Amino acid sequence: MRKRHRHLDFEVNLIPFIDLLSTCICFLLLTAVWINIGAMNVKQAVGGQAVEESTEKKPTMWVLMRETGDLAIDTKDASIAANLQHLTIPAENGKPNLAKLGEALTQIRSLDARVVTALVQPAAASFYEDIIAIMDEVKRVGFVDLGVAPL
């Protein structure tokens, strides 16, 4: 009979369990802070509006970055000359030529002031500094709505 009591009499060590729960609570609090900081309100620049809202097409300009550093400018729904709707700016030493880009963008803005939306589409091998430089040049010329298209 003594052997039965000995098997039923045991202690539970709750210290490791409490340590595990406190660690989980710390991770929960840290991820809650990261989620709050990482949230950002964005709106889709082109194509996010409902059918009723999109009665008039807004003119947009795409700056396509190629692997070689060349830039292709495609202007859609704008009233400009045909030679400026599809324009290619060759690279200079493997880098985008920002001076010629600025001249072309100024010419496009002077012909049609309704073109205020510009989208930059980088190539897979594009450098971030080139993307930022192109965005700065587009912003400097006077384009208000600026976006980067995914790869």
Radius of gyration: 29 Å
Record the strand order, biggest sheet.
3-2-1-4-5
How is the biggest beta sheet arranged?
Answer: 5 strands, mixed
CATH class group of the largest domain: Alpha Beta
What's the mean pLDDT score? 80
Structural class: alpha/beta
Count of helix runs: 5
Question: What is the annotated CATH architecture of the largest domain?
Answer: 2-Layer Sandwich
- Give me the count of strands: 5
Distance between the termini: 76 Å
CATH fold-level name of the largest domain:
Nucleotidyltransferase, domain 5
Instruction: Determine the oligomeric state from the structure.
Output: single chain
Quickly count the domains: 2
Q: How much helicity do the residues have? A: 40-55%
Report the portion of residues in β strands: 15-25%
Output the helix-strand order: HHEEHEHEHE
Low-confidence stretches: none
Outline, from the CA principal axes? elongated
Q: Briefly, what is this?
A:
This protein has helices at 2-8, 15-38, 82-85, 98-111, 128-141; strands at 60-65, 71-76, 86-89, 117-121, 145-148. It is an alpha/beta fold and 151 residues long.
Notes on the protein architecture:
With 151 residues, the protein is of the alpha/beta class. 42% of the residues lie in helices and 17% in strands. The longest helix is centred in the N-terminal third of the chain and has 24 residues, at 15-38. It starts with a helix and ends with a strand.
What brief labels describe this structure?
Nucleotidyltransferase, domain 5; alpha/beta; 151 residues
Please outline the helices and strands.
Elements: H1 2-8, H2 15-38, E1 60-65, E2 71-76, H3 82-85, E3 86-89, H4 98-111, E4 117-121, H5 128-141, E5 145-148
Parallel strand pairs: 1-4, 4-5
Antiparallel strand pairs: 1-2, 2-3
Helix pairs in contact: 4-5
